[in-house]
Amino acid sequence: MRSFRFNRKLPTVVLGWLFFVVPAKAQFVANWFDRVSQTQRQQPQWMTPVATTTPRLDQEIHFDTDILRQSNGFTTDDYGGSKGFELIPAEHLQVNVNPPPYLAHDELEVPDGFGDFSFLVKYRLVARNEKSGNYVMTVFLAGSPPTSSAPSSASLFRSPVKRRAAEAVFGTMRSKYQFSRILWP
Q: Long-range contacts made by residues 109-115, C-beta under 8 angstroms, separation at least 24?
């Protein structure tokens, strides 16, 4: 049987954590909404676009419901729309964490189920509100790891609407420059 030896440094570490780390985290949380308000005051107050991502930093909980009509006459109901929690943890940074949407198909051969988890990180390079120039420039990094089964997945090229959008964007480029082996599944 092993005997337990008391580590003399443990009380110092615990006390240090209690006196320095916990108040710093509490202060970070306490100042959260002030930081968000300050960040949003620096950017234009444009209306959020319906069909695309806004370059502005927003903090909200977002939920979409879509009915996707397919060319074969069937529909897919998308509950969640790959939307979720949009948080502003720092002055120029927004992090979106999107739980998997639930996809319900009226086509019997295609099983219902959850789509892919996704995330989006926005970094605002520069912004000026209406009084100072009325512009914003933001860079995005998005990802969607394949966390679901293939038939009911909502990843970029498996979702009918996203596939059509990708075909519209990459279609002419694919045929003109033959990027099909690189960009297309």
A: 110/74, 110/76, 110/151, 110/152, 111/149, 111/151, 111/152, 112/152, 113/148, 113/149, 113/151, 113/152, 114/147, 114/148, 114/152, 115/78, 115/80, 115/82, 115/148, 115/152, 115/153, 115/154, 115/155, 115/159
Q: Which residue has the tokens 């620096």?
A: 42
Q: pLDDT tens across 56-73, in order?
A: 999 988 888 888 888 888
Structural domain spans, the chain = 42-46+54-152
- CA dihedral sign of residues 149, 185, 145, 79: negative
Reported pTM? 0.65
